[in-house]
Amino acid sequence: MILQIWLDIIPITNLYLPLAKEYGLTEFAFFLIDDDWDAQSLIDLKNTTGASFLFGLQTTRKRIDKLDVIDGIIVCQPDEA
Q1: CA 31 to CA 18: how far, in whole Å?
Q2: Reported confidence tier of residue 63, pLDDT bands at 50, 70, 90
Q3: Residue 59 predicted with pLDDT over 80
């Protein structure tokens, strides 16, 4: 019962910034590609958060070459209304 309550307070998703002092646990970790994460920082992020999946959010034309470290990239485009 106590374990179940503890697991219920862990967020399923979280957006992380490279300047944060601590990273909380999550199932799916997200980061912005524009934040200039290096490969080791991404590995540390995934290990520290216990994330099953690590996704980069691409909001500009900037790309990332650390595909072996992350599980996927989500390309976000402006709304074309």
Answers
A1: 8
A2: confident
A3: yes
